[in-house]
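Morning - NAP inputs below, output right after.
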Amino acid sequence: MEQKIAFITGGNRGLGFQTALDLKNTGTKVVIGSRDLKQGEEARDKLRAAGVDAEVLQFDITKPADFQKAYDYFNSNFGRLDILVNNAGIAAGPFPGDGPEHTASDVPLEVLHNVFETNFFAPVALTKTLLPLLKKSPAGRIVNLSSILGSLTLHADPKSPIYNAKSFAYDASKTALNAFTVHLAYELRNTKIKVNSAHPGWVKTDMGGDQAPMELSEGGKTSVALATLPEDGPTGGYFHLGQPLPW
Ligand SMILES: NC(=O)c1ccc[n+]([C@@H]2O[C@H](COP(=O)([O-])OP(=O)(O)OC[C@H]3O[C@@H](n4cnc5c(N)ncnc54)[C@H](OP(=O)(O)O)[C@@H]3O)[C@@H](O)[C@H]2O)c1
């Protein structure tokens, strides 16, 4: 079986790093994107020490020039891309919290723009740039790191566990990312490419914080499952550990 080539944005720490680690026995060369090259090299070395076939690419998802750099890297080294994990993301501020940055009525517009830039516009633009290489894969897989907090159905339901967990800028950016998943999957429905949204769980990372119930070692499972879906697997879905979530 030919080796698969994967690109994980924000792979130097947290869930991106864990996802790279968990791709270890799947016949995949994992390229982690890291905006700080030194941190990326340290992460790459840790991955290699753990037995992962890993490389690092300096990559800032908010720098448009880096999209073309990524395209050129994958095109010249491999001629294709099999797996894209749109993982890099930011929160609107420490969460849970009740600052204005989490509200719909008072969020500073700069915060809204910044969160949407990293969590929505950038993955859309990166995917668009890399799509010609994913189309060359015999089994392209795109995983958009969403969150259960992107679910409008759950946010609108007073009985749902996330009803009181509202952070408008972050939540809306993940809802928008979910829309991208649905629309792109529709456009690619007659290709070999599958596009899905992942909710990793509430995981102990710098973003998830210490209160999170899920250990980092468990947090890469949904992304890895969607990155390695078989040919008859789903596309255009929104999943947590194999279970569909309501949009
Ligand atoms: N943790 C959770 O409970 C949870 C739950 C649901 C969804 N998620 C989603 O899962 C993804 C990963 O979250 P995490 O918990 O691993 O967060 P994290 O620990 O804060 O790590 C975020 C990663 O994204 C990178 N990043 C941020 N801005 C970037 C930029 N402009 N360019 C390139 N990389 C950038 C960071 O790089 P630097 O090191 O350079 O900052 C870091 O590698 C996010 O999309 C998040 O929304 C997380």
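Note: The radius of gyration is 17 Å.

O.
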